[in-house]
Amino acid sequence: MTNKINIFKPFSSALFLLFAFLFISNATFAGDSDNKPAAMQSEVSVTAPAEGSDKKEHTEGGFDAGKMIMEHVSDSHSWHLFGHYAIPLPIIVKTDKGIEVFSSSHFGHEGEERYQGSNYNYGLVDGSIVVVDSQLEGVDAAATATLTDFSITKNVAAMLISMLLMLWVFLSVAKAYTKNPGKAPKGLQSFIEPLIIFVRDDVAKPSIGEKKYERFMPFLLTVFFFILFNNYLGLIPFFPGGVNLTGSISIAMVLAGFTLLITFFIANKHYWRHVFAMPGVPIPVLIILTPIEILGLFLRPFVLMIRLFANITAGHIIALAFFSLIFIFGEMNAGLGLGVSLFSLVFTIFMGFLELLVAFLQAYVFTLLSAIYFGSAVDEGHDVHNHVDDHTDSRTTH
Question: What burial class does residue 319 get, using C-beta atoms within 10 Å of its C-beta: 0-12 exposed, 13-18 middle, 19+ buried?
Fold first, then answer.
């Protein structure tokens, strides 16, 4: 019980630091303006479409499944609730003239695609904030070269909500352990404690070792619960859920980057020796093997990033694709749409239950692989382990 209580203090610190870095990174990566150069101004014009065939085709195009799916899995400057209702989020942009803050509701209605700030006129093009001229004819290339978007996007807002939820959960559990030491867990404790013990006994100890696992527990617990909480929140179809946060490439990249940096900082001489000059390998072979080993250092976090990003995003896309079949076939024929709706509903429910398993597995796999990388970085070598094993066997025999 004492070991579990001691974990919570560094765990809460690691949680705070992780969210701080994730907040900055998501605002930088996801919020970076995709401003086009002046030569491409015609492609990013935010003027209203001209009357004619294009507008008619858009209104008569019917249900756009691809647009609906991409709006769900991608980030945005507003949080959609239902129908035409959405929560506008604050837009924070920094230009060469300073910082401006305003609401995304200025871009929420047709014909109001710009906001006249104190420094520049801003427009929303393909989800990115750009600087436009007074006539909305295109991008002011000189101004957009210095524009940086630090807006509170949907992903950032979801991350802040999950941060508050996790802090409430774990501070409550830690407080309960402090008030009632030695007593059997109950309530929220009885749900969280088995997961902590699972990460400790089935992930950290076997992968890192009995003597060295404790220093990595705060990070492993933080990553495990961060991915787990946000995976399950993403499966909730209404506010404050329904956000594809862990399926964001920027979030997955930062999490994998933490694993890479920690591995580099804790790695011992034995680890680096096997990377740059593996013992017992001829020099001609090392010429080929060493670059492969160095490449493998960066492929590991890359695989972590792609696995988390692809699996979570794919689950959302598959479920939404089958859900979209109801509207696609319903526009073709009402009776056909009713028949397809039954199939789509059953399959969507099945995918929902499958995603409950995938959400846990992705948190487990990311944490397990991170622990394995840490274990290999602090491993003292086969000779030391063989000596310890022989000594243990001799004591057991006696």
Answer: buried
Phi, psi of 91 (to 5 degrees): -105, 125
CA dihedral defined by 240, 247, 230, 4, rounded to 10 degrees? -170
- Radius of gyration of the chain, Cα coordinates, nearest whole angstrom: 26
Q: Say how many domains are in the chain.
A: 2
Q: Which of 124, 152, 180 is the last residue of a domain?
A: 152
What is the residue-averaged pLDDT of the chain? 77
Distance, in Å, from the CA atom of 52 to the CA atom of 63, rounded to the nearest integer, reads 20
Q: Is the peptide bond before 279 cis (omega within 30 degrees of 0)?
A: no
For residue 349, pLDDT over 90 is answered with no
- Looking at the structure, tell me whether residues 143 and 207 fall in a common domain: no
Per-residue pLDDT for 34 more than 60? no
Instruction: Give the CA dihedral 355, 71, 148, 103, nearest 10 degrees.
Output: -110
Whether 135 and 168 map to the same domain: the answer is no
* Domain of 362, in residue numbers: 2-17+156-389
pLDDT level of residue 371 (50, 70, 90 thresholds): very high
Same domain for 363 and 226: yes
Does residue 340 lie within any of the structural domains? Answer: yes
Q: How sure is the predictor about 327, in pLDDT bands with cuts at 50, 70 and 90?
A: confident
Which of 125, 152, 179 delimits the end of a domain? Answer: 152
Q: Three-state DSSP class for 398? A: coil
Q: Looking up tokens 């507008």, which residue turns up?
A: 55
Q: Where does the chain have alpha helices with state H?
A: 2-29, 53-59, 65-73, 141-144, 154-179, 188-198, 205-208, 217-235, 249-266, 269-276, 283-332, 334-378, 382-397
DSSP secondary structure of 181-196? TTSPP-THHHHHHHHH
Q: What is the DSSP letter of 41?
A: G
Q: Is residue 26 part of a domain?
A: no
